[in-house]
């Protein structure tokens, strides 16, 4: 067997990488930071109090300066967690006057492209293209240490007693990107804080209130991970049983985009739509949506099941439901059992 040259390998990896980028443009990647403060699972940002406002760009020094960070609400003494994995450095001081909250730490590390299907591509591209994807300073906290490695979600330290310095302020961690860019979008949680309560999807097809998944028929099986293309591929989706012509409902609230096609051959079922919102992103294929843009609410009519029997006679007709990041949506569909709220 001929040895694979480095050039061939790099070219192979690049091809896979480009294909991956195609399938998942960067803005669709999992780029959200983890919860930073205990008691604030959504990284809620300080509003305004008599000392100022917590949003990025808020006025400082009587309008002469701007807030170069974002203030994430955090009670004095609360546990602070690392928003992403990286390398610690510090101490980082803001006041330089030794007051009770004059402490902090910097984290520099990666985070982007972490959910690529191919670990080697992820590692290579992170290393080659994004050696330091994120760099942030967390101020007004006392870290467990000022150096070494920390992992996303690990305890990073403790919120300092801000009320002692600013009585009546909304206590907060000052979160500042090292390049002074706006970190607000990174602080938005990727998934709702209480998935058991908020993560249930509604029934997606009339006549199938429990989102029952297609079993196996002569064309294949409907579960996540089922073999495809004679075992050369896998089903990165779940097939929810749905009769031809049945009404299709939105599993959660979000923004529509499309059309999303699977077959790209213009057959009778080559249509679909994407919904992004409520912490989810899915593609629903083999349906004809009411429209391809705008917002939709959970349980609202999304469209109509296309005539699958015309293309695959005898198949268990179904909506192909695929998470945008190719993860397994089964548990979300199961949580939808009987739920239409
Ligand atoms: Zn601040
Ligand atoms: Zn499918």
TrEMBL record:
Entry keywords, A to Z: Disulfide bond, Metal-binding, Signal, Zinc
GO MF assignments: metal ion binding
Keyword Ribonucleoprotein: no
Gene3D superfamilies registered for this protein in UniProt: Glucose Permease (Domain IIA)
Listed InterPro entries: Dup_hybrid_motif, LECT2
Cleavable signal peptide: 1-23
Annotated family: Belongs to the LECT2/MIM-1 family.
Protein name according to UniProt: Peptidase M23 domain-containing protein
Organism expressing this protein natively: Hirundo rustica rustica
Lineage of the organism: Eukaryota, Metazoa, Chordata, Craniata, Vertebrata
């Amino acid at each position: 067997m001929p040895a694979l040259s480095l050039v061939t390998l790099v070219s192979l990896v690049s091809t896979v990488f480009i294909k991956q980028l195609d399938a998942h443009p960067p803005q669709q990647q999992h780029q959200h930071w983890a919860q930073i403060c205990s008691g604030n699972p959504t990284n809620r940002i300080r509003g305004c109090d008599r000392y100022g406002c917590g949003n990025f760009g808020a006025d400082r020094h009587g309008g002469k300066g701007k807030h170069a960070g974002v203030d994430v609400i955090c009670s004095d003494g609360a546990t602070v967690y690392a928003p992403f994995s990286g390398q610690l450095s510090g101490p980082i001081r803001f006041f330089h006057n030794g007051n009770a909250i004059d402490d902090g730490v910097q984290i520099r590390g990666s985070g982007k492209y972490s959910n690529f299907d191919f670990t080697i591509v992820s590692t290579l591209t992170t290393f080659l293209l994004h050696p330091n994807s994120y760099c942030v300073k967390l101020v007004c906290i006392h870290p467990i240490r000022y150096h070494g490695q920390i992992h996303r979600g690990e305890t990073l330290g403790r919120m300092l007693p801000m009320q002692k310095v600013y009585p009546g302020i909304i206590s907060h961690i000052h979160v500042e990107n090292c390049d002074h860019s706006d970190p607000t979008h990174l602080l938005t949680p990727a998934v709702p804080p209480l998935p058991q309560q908020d993560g249930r999807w509604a029934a997606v097809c009339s006549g199938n209130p429990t989102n029952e998944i297609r079993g196996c028929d002569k064309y294949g099986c409907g579960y996540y991970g089922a073999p495809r293309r004679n075992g050369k591929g896998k089903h990165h989706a779940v097939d929810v049983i749905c009769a031809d012509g049945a009404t299709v409902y939105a599993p959660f609230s979000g923004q529509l985009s499309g059309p999303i096609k699977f077959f790209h051959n213009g057959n009778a079922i080559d249509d679909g739509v994407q919904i992004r919102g409520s912490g989810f992103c899915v593609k629903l294929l083999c349906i004809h949506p009411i429209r391809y843009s705008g917002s939709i609410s959970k349980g609202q009519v999304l469209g109509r099941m296309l005539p699958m029997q015309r293309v695959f006679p005898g198949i268990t007709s179904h909506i192909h439901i695929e998470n945008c990041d190719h993860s397994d949506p089964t548990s979300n569909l199961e949580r939808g059992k009987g739920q239409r709220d």
